[in-house]
Amino acid sequence: MNIFFDVDYTIMGADGSLRQNTAETFQRLVADGHRVFVWSGVGVRTAEVRRFGLADYVTKVFQKPLEDYEAALPGLGVLPRPDFVIDDYPEIVRVFGGFICKPYYFRNRKDTEMDEIYQTICDVVEGGGSEHRAYRPGRKRSEGGG
Ligand SMILES: [Mg+2]
Question: 62 alpha carbon to ligand 1 midpoint, in Å?
Fold first, then answer.
């Protein structure tokens, strides 16, 4: 799948730290044959991807649409279309499907969100869906709309 991660409060906290197990999760996803993308509503966050040592796992970094998510993709050069998005902002997850993560603000060794995200992706690959409370199936492409 083409898996898109948000930056602020998803992989990066308000304190500038990287969420626990982010790099390990990216590595596992790539090893499983997925493509990992990073996008942000603030802009193209290549500097953060490099600073956190994620560049080897990330196929491309994009700017994320803030509204009319589906229709805005071509104008932002976002290709391929996301198959699975991970974001602390629920609306974009409802459109594309994916995982609504708990917002990450500060370094926290008890945070298990990345492991839950990885497991949910494995569930979707194996069974076409997941029972996880944070999973959303998304709309089909033909349902269109913003
Ligand atoms: Mg965010």
Answer: 14
Beta bridge partners of 99: 86, 135
Domains of the chain, start order: 2-143 (3.40.50.1000)
E strands of 58-139, at which residues? 58-63, 84-87, 98-100, 135-136
CA 6 to ligand 1 centroid distance, Å = 6
pLDDT tens across 8-54, in order? 999 999 999 999 999 999 999 999 999 999 999 999 999 999 999 99
Gap from CA of 18 to ligand 1 centroid (Å): 13
Ligand 1 centroid vs 87 CA: distance in angstroms?
A: 6
